[in-house]
Design goal:
Layout lengths: L1 H20 L12 H4 L13 E8 L3 H12 L4 E4 L15 E2 L7 H8 L1 H24 L7 E8 L6 H14 L4 E3 L12 E9 L2 H14 L3 E3 L4 E5 L2 E4 L2 E10 L15 E14 L7 E4 L13 E7 L4 E12 L10 H15 L6 E12 L5 E4 L6 E5 L5 H17 L19 H14 L20 E4 L6 E5 L5 E5 L10 E3 L4 E3 L6 E3 L4 E3 L15
Helix pairs in contact: 3-7, 3-9, 4-5, 5-6, 5-9
Length: 540
């Protein structure tokens, strides 16, 4: 009993310490991305007093900072808060393709929303790309912004029909594409392929750092290490202080203000990235991506994509991503995270023979809407709370578009994209996917009664975590490198799913809606707003 009481006290002290430090985690996992590792970000202080503003923006990634920039340049008083640092969430874990061609394909969007809406979606992507280029020029942001070609090629299991359908649909939507027999830089892929001219890439951390400097130069304020715990129309509580605002924008990858509605319309996926050196000049810069399937159940046809990035005097970085699976739904019967990284490395070595040492690897989180388009605009049921979510693998353009669209709505500017991206929309053609994803989510609640694979926290190795115990008494346990066992409730505080241990990023991940908690139980990703509850370990 004394041992269990000591553990509980230690857990409580750790949680209090985390609260006082206001979530100082610099990134949503243990792996540093190249972007985060290569930039010294502008430093901001935590919120330490009540305040009032025109617009409060929660989230300092590309979505939130784009909205803040648009509103600030229009003369609105803006405050931005983030529970980490600038771009410490998914903006810092992207591969940073800036593409007019969408991951979900224009022929699929046309089937779901009609050809006119597919054309509107294409126009919005072009607008977002142009916005980025204009801001880079106007604010003189040195972020290696580069216009280049993109190439879509067949996965070995796919058929040319996919390319033919996308060629017809993309051109009909206004996105130029053409068939090519060979893919520059990718001799292994014999073609045919689709070439998309006028795509782009950049260094996302340098870009958003430039946005932040422009926002603060206009007299606005950014607070980091500032965690919102209560979000209502006109009022948000963060770090224990009250912020009153005429309008609130939630730009947190997945909304942390909404408990149910939006989370039934989109679903979280983990995606993996490696970055390896390759001699400069070996391969011409371009974007490459294949027609593989995003869902991990199709283990034989995973989606993969690649690009290059300036690295040092003699090398570029080859950045390759893919191997997605649903967040928290990884187990021993599926591929391990280590195997996913190895698959990316093997894929890259086959296609880029000059590839050298893997310098970085990291993972990120992608939100997949059931009807293929992001949710940008007023939160359902609210009049003054806006959301930007559902990036669907196009986070750089959809995040930028979300910031532009939401700022237009707040400023009263008519936008042709409001209805298309409305978070309140209902897409009847997505009913099948909605029901399938809903069934998958419901199935995760059976974890409440399934036996844990590890019976006791004492079985853990230092640096290892797991869910232990049985029934409703399951515990999220982590053994520190010093051998101290920390235990928390395994029940996600969002809607009660049992979390799963993520051995790659040393986190506890919710398989229902994608909330993530670090090894100390501290929330890193929404929709959960609070930490895992510290408890005594289960009885042996």
């Amino acid at each position: 009993m004394a041992y269990e009481l000591t553990l509980l006290i230690n857990n409580l002290l750790a949680m209090i310490n985390e609260s006082l430090e206001q979530n100082t985690t610099s990134t949503s996992g243990t792996h540093l991305s190249f972007w985060i590792d290569s930039v010294e970000r502008q430093s901001f202080t935590p919120l330490a007093n009540d305040l009032d503003t025109d617009v409060l923006i929660i989230g300092a990634g590309i979505s939130g900072l784009t909205a803040a920039y648009c509103l600030a340049t229009a003369g609105r008083k803006v405050v931005v808060i983030d529970d980490g640092e600038i771009a410490s969430g998914e903006t810092g874990r992207t591969t940073a393709h800036i593409a007019k061609e969408l991951d979900d394909f224009y022929f699929e969007i046309a089937k779901m929303h009609g050809e006119e809406n597919a054309k509107l979606a294409a126009e919005s992507q072009v607008d977002a790309m142009q916005f980025i280029a204009d801001v880079v020029a106007k604010e003189s942001i040195g972020c290696e912004h580069e216009i280049l070609d993109g190439y879509l090629f067949l996965h070995p299991t796919d058929e040319i029909k996919t390319l033919e359908e996308e060629y017809n649909a993309s051109n009909k939507a206004g996105i130029e594409s053409s068939f090519v027999d060979a893919i520059p830089g990718l001799a292994y892929e014999k073609g045919p392929a689709l070439r998309f001219p006028g795509q782009a890439q950049f260094h996302p951390l340098k870009y958003v750092t430039g946005l932040a400097k422009a926002i603060t130069a206009l007299g606005n304020t950014i607070y980091t290490k500032t965690h919102a715990t209560e979000i209502k129309e006109h009022e948000v509580v963060a770090n224990g202080f009250r912020i009153t605002a005429k309008e609130v924008v939630v730009a947190t990858n997945t909304p942390v203000n909404d408990r149910v509605t939006i989370h039934t319309k989109q679903h979280p996926y983990r995606t993996y990235v490696i970055a390896a050196t390759i001699p400069k000049g070996t391969v011409q810069h371009a974007l490459w991506w294949d027609t593989g399937d995003r869902e991990s159940k199709w283990v034989n046809q995973p989606y993969t994509y690649a690009r290059l990035q300036a690295y040092d005097e003699t090398n570029d970085l080859l950045i390759v991503g893919g191997q997605d699976h649903k967040t928290g739904q990884h187990d021993e019967e599926d591929l391990s995270q280590e195997e996913r990284y190895r698959n990316l490395e093997n894929w890259a070595k086959l296609r880029f023979t000059a590839m050298q040492e893997v310098k970085y690897r990291w993972s990120g989180q992608v939100m997949e809407p059931v009807d293929l388009l992001p949710f940008l605009g007023l939160n359902p049921g609210d009049k003054h709370i806006y959301i930007i979510t559902g990036d669907s693998g196009n986070g750089m353009t959809n995040g930028t578009l979300g910031g532009m669209l939401v700022s237009d709505l707040i400023l009263g500017i008519d936008t042709p994209y409001e209805k298309l991206y409305s978070p309140s929309r209902i897409s009847l053609k997505a009913t099948g996917d909605f029901l399938k994803e809903g069934a998958n989510m419901a199935a995760q609640y059976t974890d409440l009664i399934k036996p844990a694979k590890i019976k006791s926290a004492e079985e853990l190795q230092p640096g290892q975590g797991a869910v232990v115990g049985k029934g409703l008494n399951k515990v999220a346990a982590y053994k520190t490198e010093a051998g101290i066992v920390q235990t928390f409730s395994a029940v996600c505080p969002h809607l009660g799913c049992i979390v799963h241990w993520n051995d790659d990023e040393n986190s506890f991940d919710c398989p229902c809606h994608g909330s993530r908690f670090d090894c100390n139980g501290v929330v890193m990703n929404g929709p959960a707003l609070s930490n895992l509850k510290p408890i005594s370990p289960p009885a042996k």
